[in-house]
Amino acid sequence: MRWLVFVFLVVWIHLGDLGTAWLYHGGAWPQAGHLRNLRDVLAIAIAGLCLVSVRLPTRLLVPVLAYGILALAYLVLDRSATTSGILLGSFGTLLIPMLFFLVGFYCVRDPARLHRYGGLLATLAVASTLFGAWEQRHTGFWIDTLAFPQYMRDVKGLLVGANPDTGLPWNFYPDTEALGRRAAGLLAAPLAQGMFLAVAAITSIAWLERRSRWLGLALCALLFSGIWMSGTRGAMLAAGLALVGYMATSKTLFRDGASRLVLTLGALLAIGCASYGIVLVSINFLDGSTIGHWDALQKNIHDLPRVLLWGAGLGQQGAIAAQQSRATIGGGEGAIFSIAFQLGLPAALLFLWFYLNCTLALWRSYRLHHDPMALATFWLAIGVATTLISSEHVLAVSGTGAFWLLCGATLRSQRPLSPPAPEAAHEHP
């Protein structure tokens, strides 16, 4: 039963906005706007079941509980004039990584289902890549057929940051001149599309490694093209680092060391060639996005001493506050800064402690069981970590929900092997 609920939640995460926007249809069925709340309630309920019924490793349980209690204290003791909607939304956003990690840990209990999850991610990702290639050239689908601008405004609260000509979010476009389009895919969001495809691309190799490694590599290449169509540079960096790391360390993809070296260098060269123009534009600050990220990082570092112990409070930073034009501290970029500015630097360190322990546990799991899925998840954790100071990907359900579910599922499904009983060890045939 819990596996079916898990599959339902995974599909809902990655098709939720598209399906809800279709049901909402510019206000034709206003009740559709509440479906997102039901998804969140379901995730919270499963995470709660995990905490009360499953024994988590202490190194993961302690930071999860400490971080959650601290966030709850800021919610209960808030004395600002922030509205309850922004408070609850910001509180929930900060808990997304832990909640979805717990959901994966509770629902996926064996390697067979973990590999089924890898297949589900690959299927959704291929469909999203193909759909993204189509809708990228048919913007009218979002505006006329789906009435997506009205959904973003009325349901998701996009009050700022929309193209005045189309009503679509500015992240649907590569620049403010709006001369092109970025692929949004089934997730209906280019930034989320890019990061989801990064997770699915590396997972696809591991999922097929022992059955058809060349098909897995072909799927990875297809999904990498989808990442580039989304124009998400954070996802490009995360996926590139994870792919190179995986190929260099996997002893089952190609057992011969020379083959691994050639394949790794080939992947590195292909990624370098595909990224050359983007890197050149970025390091020379030739686009507004790079300048904005750089300015935000400088302001974040400048304001960080103000929250060395106490945060400014929930809703004083983060994506939800930014949509309401209420952010009062920091530059508004970077998940780790968003946590620090709202809950204080100790909370940010608790989150990093959890992230580090999770990453190390994934590596230990791979060393013990040699499951490609564990190695893929480990390298994804390394790759995704590069976004902590530049974006809020790790605090987004659609962008990294699949990643956090994968972390929890991998660690739960691959428990350490029990040593033989003393009496069994001394038995003689």
Layout of helices and strands:
Layout: H1 2-24, H2 35-53, H3 58-76, H4 84-107, H5 111-135, H6 140-145, H7 148-154, H8 190-208, H9 213-230, H10 233-249, H11 257-283, H12 288-303, H13 319-323, H14 335-343, H15 345-369, H16 372-385, H17 397-413, H18 422-425
Quick structural overview:
With 429 residues, this protein is mostly helical. The protein contains 18 helices and no strands.
N- to C-terminal distance? 42 Å
Write down the overall geometry. globular
Share of helix among residues?
55-70%
Unreliable stretches: 416-429
Query: How many DSSP-defined strands?
Result: 0
Oligomeric state of this protein:
single chain
Content-based structural category:
mainly alpha
Radius of gyration: 22 Å
How many helical stretches? 18
The SSE order reads HHHHHHHHHHHHHHHHHH
Biggest beta-sheet profile? none
Average pLDDT: 88
Model description:
The protein has 18 helices and no strands. Mean pLDDT is 88; it is low at 416-429. It is mostly helical. Helix 5 packs across helix 9 and helix 8 packs antiparallel against helix 9 (213-230). The chain has helices spanning 2-24, 35-53, 58-76, 84-107, 111-135, 140-145, 148-154, 190-208, 213-230, 233-249, 257-283, 288-303, 319-323, 335-343, 345-369, 372-385, 397-413, 422-425.
